[in-house]
Design goal:
Layout lengths: L5 E3 L2 E3 L3 H4 L4 H19 L8 H6 L4 H19 L8 H30 L15 H12 L6 H25 L4 H8 L5 E2 L2 H22 L10 E4 L10 E4 L2 E4 L6 E2 L3 H8 L4 H10 L4 H5 L3 H13 L10 H25 L5 H11 L4 H13 L5 H17 L7 H9 L6 H8 L1
Helix pairs in contact: 2-4, 2-5, 4-5, 5-6, 7-14, 9-10, 10-13, 10-14, 13-17, 14-15, 14-16, 15-16
Amino acid sequence: MKNGFLLVGLFLVLPVSCQNKNNTYNSDFKLVAKNFKEGFKKLNLSPNQLSYVANLQAIQSKDSILQQELFFERTTKILQKINPEKLSKKNRLDFELIDYETKMNLLRIAQEKKWSSLKVQDISDTGLFSLPNGKFLYGYFLKRWIGLEVTPDEMYKFGLSEIERVKSRMKTVQTRVNMDNSTFKKHINASSFYYDNIAIIQEEFENIKKIVAQKLPENFPFLDSISDVKIARGTNKELAKVPAFYQNETFYYNFFDQPFNKRQMSWIYIHEAMPGHHYQIMLENSLNRTDIQKMFQYASYREGWAAYIEEIGYEIGAYRDIYDELGKWEWDIIRSVRVSIDVGINYYGWSDQKALEFWQQHIKEQDNIGLREIARMKRWPCQVITYKYGADKILKWKTKFQKKEDFNLKQFHQIILENGSLPFSVLEKIID
């Protein structure tokens, strides 16, 4: 082929044309992207799974790993010969994604080669730290879930800083109502803060939906592409560990045998429905994305966006009073504590008892939730960090943009959303 990048087996070959003819960069790069997609598909790689045991069990044979390594090493060499500055906006984004996935997969391959050399017969499900080379494995899984740039030590410190931030916000709410600790605790646990009637709960969520909808057009783009979100009571008790969830264009709230906390209604609706998961997922599905962009999904982006939305609840009209805000912080302290515990268990080797003591230091009288979350983090390392890390990234970008005189929240959201799910390191390049 005179112009373009050839695929030989699973290998990519750079043509002379792309080295010396600027006007052929974009047409040639489309062939690079096409061949990468086809070569990647032939590798038949397993997607990242929640369970670390499942991920380790999915490691392929030694010959397959070698084939993968050759493919990604060759891809690296090709990318080094391309000047992304000469690519169109869309092609440059594909370039960044291919580059990111190539680096991530080479990191995965290094981990898998080390793991395979250990010849472990039975994979323990008691946490990554219990495995041979467990700390190395955790460092890899953290990057796979969060991003290439993160480290366990940094994430642990990030968790500590978020714990203090959220505690400060909760204290501010208490100060505003002018109550001491015991009076405030008694006040927020009064029956007046709980619903026990399904019809009233449904009506209240429908009301929140209407209130939030009024402010959406001035703050969020692409609303014409978004279908209406339905609201329904969840019926699956296996999913009752969380107050609500999103599935199939429907916001489900869980109401079984426990009263429903009013303070969790506003934040959970905007997180799961509009303008959280429902909005972001429906919008992404409507975008004219390239084949490369459609190949990958990034949990830290999706969960980060939904958690970020909770942070701007007042700006978008979702929080009607300080108790709606308090409900957000009451759940966010759990998310914050989980960040440090996840690192503590899986990287520093904390026992369950030490993890629970850390939990009790920051969260009182919720040991049942703490034990549940500890077990979750041992099975699914790193996943719980996606919410906090993603929200923090978007909030910092928002703060940076707000320094501009012409800051517009809707335009800022368009920049974050218009390319769909991306690694934050790639999105940061677009923003910069």
